[in-house]
Amino acid sequence: MDPIFVNSKKALLNLFSAFLPDWTVVLVSIFISIGAIMVLGPFTMMYLTWFERKLLGRIQNRIGPNRVGIFGLLQPIADGVKMLTKEDIVPEGADKAVHLLAPIAIVIPSLLVFSVLPFGRNMTAVNLNIGVLFFLAVSATTTLSIFMGAWASRNKFSLLGGMRSVAQLVSYEVPMVLSVVPVILAAGSLSTVDLVESQGGWNGFKWFVFTPWGFTAFITFYLSGVAECNRTPFDIPEGESEIVAGFHTEYSGMKFALWYMAEFMNVFTVSGLTAVLFLGGWQGAPGLPSWAWFFIKTYALVFVMMWFRGTLPRLRVDQLMGLAWKFLLPLTLVNIFVAGLWFFIPDLRWRVGTAVALLGLTFWALMALNRTALPEKRTYEFAE
Amino acid sequence: MLGVLRGMGITLKNFLASYVLPRRPDSLETGGIVTVQYPEERLPEKENFRNFPFLVFDGTVDNIRCVSCDICAKECPPKCIYIVRDTDSEGKPLKRPKVFDIDFTVCMNCGICEEACPFDAIFMDHEFEIGGPERQKSLVYHRDDLLKSTAHFQKIRPTDFAAIEERRKKDAEKKAAAQATVQAAAQPKPQTPPSPQP
Amino acid sequence: MSPPVLEKTFQASDPVLQDTETFEVNLGPQHPSTHGVFRMNVKLEGETIVSLKPVMGYLHRNHEQIAENMSYLGSMPYTDRLDYFNSMSNNFGYALAVERLAKIDVPERAQYVRVIMAELTRLVNHVSVIGFLLNDLGAFFTPVLYAFREREKILDVFEEVAGSRMMCNYLRFGGVKRDLTPAVTERIKKIVRGFPKFLDEFEGLLTRNEILCIRCQKVGVLPYDLAVNAGITGPMARASGVNYDLRKVDRYSIYDRFKFKIPLGKIGDVYDRYLVRILEMRESLKILEQALKEIPAGPVMNPKFAALAKAPRNFKPPKGEAYGRVEAPKGELGFYLVSDGTAQPWRYHVRAPSLINLTVLEDLCLGHKVADAVIILGSIDIVLGELDH
Amino acid sequence: MSPLVLLVKTGIYLLMALSLLAAVGVVTFRNIFHSALALAGTLLGVAGIYLALRADFLAGVQILLYVGAVVTLILFAIMLTHRLGDPTIPQANKQSGPALAGLLILAALLGSLFLKTNWPVSEAALTPVTVRVLAKALLGEFVFPFEVVSIVLLAALIGAIVIARKD
After folding, report:
1. How close does chain B come to A304, measured CA to CA in Å?
2. What average pLDDT does the structure give for chain A?
């Protein structure tokens, strides 16, 4: 079961190599990988919308989509048809070329990052030796597209959304990158494949999340990841109740669908990368194939993101920045130091003790320093 | 932190409960899915529910209770009722409406026509699915669209029907008795001849 | 003539150079969180509000003028449409005004029924408002839908007694339209019994939620003095510590018979407004419990005026004026009536709490962010039907 | 030359052409926002060239820092200062003469370096610069310049904060 995808690709390549020259086989191999991702990306997006709607529905004591197909499974297709047939409205004062380019430009990085995700054993499209860096770098360019969309719309809400988005993405990029550092330190490699392999396997719990620094990094990375995807509680760039729809206010039809697609693919890839970095990627109990483990872990993280959405209100811009710069950033910096100490101290008890103590102290100190931003308890009088 | 986690717990509880707990109407008490899948499932109709008005007739369609007294049209707060009294072939006014139009685009379902009607002729219906292909003409209901039998009224609002019928019966008896006494008083006297027309 | 501005040499300390450009945004009339067709003309510096002008009137429907051309009873269904969340309270206020004008007594049972309905309305309003406030805060409908689950039960009761879920048109001068059946009384009891459990769940989801706390605390602070000077009423005033509740102050209807307290906030920010509403609901439940226990049997309509409903045109209150006010969920809802002895009021005026509470919007919003303006508006709790009557 | 190599080479040349084209766009677009976008395109193209030269890490950092951060900040500045986004404002000014002179000097400098460098001609002579090698170099041999650069950056950071503080 495990190598089913790898083997089928091999079989396909064998088939082609029988009658095609060698160099085309390489091309075919590339195209198969690209094709798989091109199918997987939009497909994931489609069913994540379905998943999210179902899940939120259940959280809110509703049923969710259930009219199109059984369990509403054809709903995404119906939505797609709707989006395609909708009128494409470009505002009068818009910068037409940039307005058109922006949603296209945002889908590209979202699709590109799929290429370094190890979906299973030997199932990485490109095993770059800078895999994680590639992921972070490419996803950083989404800022640019959001900016393009916001600016080209010539709408004040879009502009506000764009500015918020940039401030947010640039801020959260920092703790996100810094929380990856301990993991890279531990694995000694930037390649996603190496990262997964260094997390051992099911036996012995070698996942990084089971170490104090790993756990801290997991939380900080995941939170920054949620912020990078513009998801609740960090969805201020498109905060519906405040700035209508933020940077994609002026988009309709398929262009709007592309923004959405990028967002949902980001949700998937960020969850996937979190699973790879901290939850052992495709490593798992041998009962299930490796790719199944990867998807289980990823979807568990996706579930948490949607669960956030079903529960939490959103933060304000300044609080969001405060969280990134005043809390996550110092914590991740200390965490790098703690991870360094971890590999420096030989004795297990000592290193666990030091790590927990240091991180706890930092957490407490940061809470104390930020206490003005923390909620206060209120008392109420009762008049007769 | 703890507050957020507690909130997450509550939403998770609701999420899981939606798979376990029963649906409407029990779910209103227990939690769980409260959706009513409208065209297929319907909530039980409340007897007192009021929507657009209708005119009642006793037995056959000719027997309209409405005497076209115009009270409802006058009392109607948004003035959505329009009545024209029927006349016989000689142009004498009859106690029934020729035109009785209600503009449902204007009607606000307040039920004041029903309260004001001294002849128990107009009542509020339970029918609410009156959508039409356009927004003006199909929502102006004419006399014949509005007519519904007393049986329909009995079906949708049995309690009110019983009370009203009892009152009507009493009124009728009283009227009959009064008429009887009037007749009894009138009988011994000799009939005065109709005064000659000038 | 050359423009003089160009001739001027700017100093680095010149405010023109230091200030960033202000940015004017129209929030509304079509905006997801203006609670209807309401517009806020906002000037921003970055995201900070430097000026905010509310623009209203998009839903103006001539309410007062219509009522002045209508029989007294004919206005009753129109009052439903003032604050369409709380038609029962609106009916209550109007009925009180007319009863004062025409000196109508209301039977005991009807008084209880009115109080029960008014308090149920308060529950409906407060849960929904908190839900919408959370929506403004960015929660994706979950609190709203939990609130609506509860509201659904109460609306079912309204439908059963009044015939309509929102546009109740239930009160009549001298009583109420229809008696509560024992089955309905049982249902209300059940709702009142079950409500604290829901409130606990709701509070668990919200009250100690850190995100909600930091978003709401110290935002939109309404000081005591401003609240009094601007004539703010209702939960908003009480959140600022103004001990003013008409149920205690005016003692209209039979509210002096019930034991309940008035929760008062100390700071007057959005969070206080939120929590005062929650606490108020708990007090309302106490009133409901007492009312349901004590409700006597008897008629629900003053028999002298029962015939009135049959002929609204014949109802001609004596010459004079009257002001009836109730503690509506949003604040003091007053109806001022002047009669000239005809079947139509000579003057009909509504003191709409939404409108008066909104007057402080700019004071509350200045210096805050756009996101705060939205939640401040949400916490003021306006309904456009009432605002633009 | 196998067709595959030809394909790759064509790709690289195409990339170069595109980045040059974008670079021309940076200086010729009338709209400053478009210029900034073209700059992003140029930087992306350069990153692509790095990638083709097997400098993976450099390419990643190029995208992360230049496209992800620097261009974004430029765009942010453009957006905050409204009137700069106005397409009617001319992008050229009187300093184009001195700028051209500066450019020529720079070109001469780069050209002389270009000629002096002993370029390896075969692929085998290329030592693959992996992240590991880079890290060892930065924290071993070149640790002193590395730290000096860090201090300079720190000073810049503190300076920025001091300037930005209102009181």
Report:
1. 10
2. 82
ipTM value, please give it. 0.80
Which of A367 and D87 is assigned the larger pLDDT? Answer: A367
- Please indicate whether, in this complex, the C-beta atoms of C204 and B10 are within 8 angstroms of each other: yes
Strands (E), chain C: 22-27, 39-45, 48-55, 171-172, 175-176, 262-264, 320-328, 331-339, 345-351
Three-state DSSP at A376 gives: coil
Report the residue count for chain C: 389
The burial class, CB within 10 Å (0-12 / 13-18 / 19+), for C28 is: buried
Evaluate whether C118 touches C88 at the Cβ level (below 8 Å): yes
Q: Do C139 and A313 touch (CB under 8 A)?
A: yes
Task: Let me know if domain B53-177 sits in CATH 3.40.50.360.
Answer: no
| D63 touching chain A per CB within 8 A | yes
> Which chain C residue's Cα is nearest to D166?
C18
Q: What is the pLDDT of residues C344-381, one digit of tens each?
A: 888 888 888 888 888 888 888 888 888 888 888 888 88
Question: Average pLDDT, whole number, for chain C?
Answer: 83
Do the two chains B and D touch, given a threshold of 8 Å on CB pairs and at least 3 pairs?
Answer: no
Chains A and B form CB pairs within 8 A to the count of 42
Structure tokens at B60: 């056959």
**CA gap A344, A336 in Å, rounded:** 12
The residue in chain D having the minimum alpha-carbon distance to the alpha carbon of residue A101 is D37
Q: Which of D14, D74, D23, D71 is nearest to D48 (CA)?
A: D14
Domain ranges of chain A: 9-73, 86-367
CB A231 within 8 A of CB A269: no
Fold classification of D3-83+125-164 is Four Helix Bundle (Hemerythrin (Met), subunit A) (1.20.120)
Cβ neighbours of C55 (radius 10 Å): 14
Tell me how many residue pairs between chain C and chain D have CB atoms under 8 A apart: 3
Look at residue C382 and give its three-state secondary structure: coil
With beta carbons less than 8 A apart as the criterion, state whether C74 and B75 touch: yes
Chain D adjacent subunits, 3+ CB pairs under 8 A = A, C
User: Which residues of chain A does B18 touch, with a Cβ-Cβ cutoff of 8 Å?
Assistant: 58-59, 61
Find the angle CA(A223)-CA(A224)-CA(A225) to the nearest 5 degrees.
Answer: 90
- Vertex A23: Cα angle to A20 and A26 (nearest 5): 95
Collapsing DSSP to helix, strand or coil, C68 comes out as: helix
- Dihedrals phi, psi of C26, to nearest 5 degrees: -95, 110
C98-144: per-residue pLDDT in tens?
888 888 888 888 888 888 888 999 888 898 888 888 888 877 788 88
Structure-block tokens of residue A215? 């756990």
Touching subunits of C (3+ CB pairs, under 8 Å) are A, B, D
How far is CA B20 from each of CA A52, A61, B14, B41, D115, rounded to the nearest angstrom? 20, 12, 10, 20, 77
Contact A307 B35 (CB under 8 A): no
The domain spans of chain D are: 3-83+125-164
Which tens digit of pLDDT belongs to each residue from B135-167? 888 888 888 888 888 888 888 888 888 888 888
Higher-confidence residue of D165 and A333: namely A333
Query: Six-digit token pair at B100?
Result: 């009785």
State whether residue A132 is helix, strand or coil: helix
pLDDT tens column, D135-146: 888 888 888 898
